[in-house]
Every structure is written in C-alpha cells, then in structure tokens.
C-alpha cells in the first residue's frame, strides 16, 4: 500500500506542484479553477515569459529528475572521482532522461506560442482588410452617385442624386468585419414593387380611369406610395422639399379616426417628376449593384417616364382638378 502511494506521488506531484505554484503566481481569476485554466492556456497577447505552460515544461522535468534521482541515488554516497562519476552516470540514466525533456518541451511551448501569435496577427490583418473592403464598398457607392449631375424634372423638382448613409445599410447586407457586403435582394424587390404600384396608380389618376375612385387613389394610395419610396431611397428632394409645396388633406380610412395625408405637390407635373426621380435613382442603384431592374414591358405606361405626353393624354388635368375641388372641400369641411 505504501509503495502504491509513493508511486502515485512520484507520478503526479512533480507535475501538480509546478502547476499550482505557477497558477498562484501567474494565474488570473478569482477561483482556483480559473487560475489553473489560465495557467494551462497559451495567451498570444502575453510574452513567452508570461506563459504558465513554459514554466511548467521547465520545472516539471526538473522535479521528476529530483524525485527519480532520490530513488536512484539511495544507498550511494558522493564520490568526486572517475569511478564515482561512472557510477553516477550508470545509476542516473532515468533521472537525467527526465531532466532532458525540459529542453524539447520548452521549445515546443515556444513554437506553439509563436504559432498562436502568428494566427492572431493573420486574424487581425484579415479583419482590417475586411473592414477596409466594407467601407471601400460604401465609399464607391457615394462616388458612383457623385458622378451624376443634378437633373431638373419638368421644371419643378431638382434631383441631386446624393446618397443617404442608410441606403447602403438597407440595400447591402453585412458587417464591416465580414468584408464586402452582399446585395439585399428583398430590399430591391420591395422598391421595384413600390415603383410598379406608383406607376399604375399615377396612370389611373392621370387618365381618370374610374372617376369615383380617383380621389381616394390619389390621396390614400399614390401619395403614400411616393413618400414611402422617397424614404426608402433617401430622397429629401421629395419628402422634404416637395413636401413643403404640398398640402395636408383630412382623410378617413376604413371609417377610422380622421388623419391628415400629405399630397405630392399640387400639380400633375410634380407628381410625375417625383415618380421619375425615384425611378431614375433606383435604376442607378441597380447599376451600381450589378443588378438588372425588372423592366415593365407595357408600352402604355412609357409616357409617364419620358416626354410630355402625360400632359395631353387627357384634356383635363385630373390632379389639378382634385386640388381645386375635392381636396379644397375636404379642407373646408375640417375647419
């Protein structure tokens, strides 16, 4: 039983003692387990002398040397002679073998620490490169739109084609640490759907397809669609500048409480100009993203996107009529 205890002590104590001592000296944490974990882990942010494993790799072989030597040298006395040295070497093969492990183990720890530091440096460099790529992509978006000159739409709205910072965040997904962001297809499809709705609504209003629904279509649908588009695309020329030249109309939707909806200007020209600017801006955004926008093939709608045919498609200017009659009446009734 005693020999078994000695054997267990011989095997484990030379390893446990250095670990515990170094954990107390170099370890960090409030609990012994935390300090032990810290000691037995390589930390790329600390120098080699601060690595607990290095000192364990040096001290443990030395303690094994002493423990095995105590057994091997038992019954012998010191003799500083040639014969004494021969006897020492013959009986110290195992203790010296244990001591010789100190050098390769410390070298191994050193190489592992250097490898971990190199991996950390590579990770930092990669992170920096990814961050640079992300912000370079954002900068290129601003630069791309910066090549566009201001456009005067129908003499009533000036499109400046500046990029709101949120546009990049909405239409391109990703984090700086992940590198070049990916295109947000859902956001692009959402704006395409809004543009299609705005074009259909504007056509129905200008041509007065259903006179009984034209007023509601203009106030509750088209104007709201245009302002949603301007917010999603970041176009203050519409939701700020054009809005200042618009009027608030008291409206009840689905028999709910009365709310005030903002018109898109006061004329047909302003409505068409707002739609054209939003569409042109979106198409430039698609060009930058390398995405071909879904083009509508209905030729009957083309007059809304170019030229002045929209002014003559119907003799009466419907939007002007709405402002002079229904909208004016709604405002008077609210007073």
List its traits.
single chain; 335 residues; mainly alpha; two-stranded antiparallel sheet
Plain-language structure description:
The chain has a two-stranded antiparallel sheet with strand order 1-2. 65% of the residues lie in helices and 6% in strands. The model has no long low-confidence stretch (mean pLDDT 87). It starts with a helix and ends with a helix. With 335 residues, the protein is mostly helical. It has twelve helices and six strands. The chain is rod-shaped, with a radius of gyration of 40 Å. Helix 1 (2-26) crosses helix 2, helix 1 (2-26) packs antiparallel against helix 3 (52-72) and helix 9 (211-233) packs across helix 10. The longest helix has 45 residues, at 102-146.
Characterize this entry briefly.
The protein has 335 residues and is mostly helical. The chain has twelve helices and six strands.
Bin the helical content: 55-70%
Characterize the main sheet.
2 strands, antiparallel
- Overall body shape: rod-shaped
- Largest sheet, order of strands side by side? 1-2
Euclidean distance between termini CA atoms = 105 Å
Strand content: 5-15%
Any low-confidence stretches, pLDDT <50, length ≥5? none
How would you spell out the order of helices and strands?
A: HHHHHHEEHEEHHHEEHH
Rg, Å, rounded? 40 Å
What structural category arises from helix and sheet content?
mainly alpha
Annotation, overall tally of beta strands: 6
Q: Which whole number gives the mean pLDDT? A: 87
Alpha plus pi helix count: 12
């Amino acid at each position: 039983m005693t020999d078994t205890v000695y054997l267990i002590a011989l095997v484990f104590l030379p390893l446990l003692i250095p670990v515990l001592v170094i954990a107390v000296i170099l370890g960090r944490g409030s609990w012994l387990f935390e300090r032990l974990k810290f000691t037995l882990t390589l930390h790329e942010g600390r120098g080699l002398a601060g690595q607990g494993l290095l000192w364990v790799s040096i001290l443990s072989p030395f303690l094994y040397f002493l423990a095995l030597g105590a057994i091997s040298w038992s019954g012998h006395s010191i003799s500083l002679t040639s014969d004494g040295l021969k006897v020492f070497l013959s009986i110290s093969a195992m203790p010296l073998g244990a001591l010789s492990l100190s050098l390769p183990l410390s070298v191994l720890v050193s190489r592992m620490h250097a490898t971990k530091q190199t991996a950390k440096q590579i990770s930092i460099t990669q992170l920096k490169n990814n961050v640079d790529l992300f912000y370079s992509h954002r900068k290129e978006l601003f630069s791309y739109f910066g090549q566009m000159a201001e456009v005067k739409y129908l003499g009533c709205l000036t499109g400046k084609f500046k990029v709101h910072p949120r546009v990049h965040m909405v239409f391109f997904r990703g984090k700086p640490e992940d590198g070049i962001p990916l295109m947000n297809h859902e956001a692009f499809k959402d704006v395409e759907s809004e543009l299609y709705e705005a074009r259909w609504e504007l056509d129905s209003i200008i041509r007065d397809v259903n006179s009984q629904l034209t007023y509601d279509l203009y106030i509750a649908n088209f104007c709201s669609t245009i302002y949603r588009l301007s917010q999603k695309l970041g176009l203050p020329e519409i939701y700020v500048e054009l809005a200042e030249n618009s009027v608030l109309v008291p409206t009840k939707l689905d028999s709910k409480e009365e709310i005030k909806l903002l018109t898109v200007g006061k004329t047909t020209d302003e409505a068409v100009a707002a739609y054209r600017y939003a569409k042109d801006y979106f198409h430039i955004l698609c060009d930058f993203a390398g995405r071909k926008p879904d083009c509508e093939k209905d030729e009957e709608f083309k007059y809304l996107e170019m030229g002045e045919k929209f002014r003559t498609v119907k003799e009466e200017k419907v939007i002007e009529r709405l402002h002079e009659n229904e909208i004016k009446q709604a405002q008077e009734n609210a007073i």
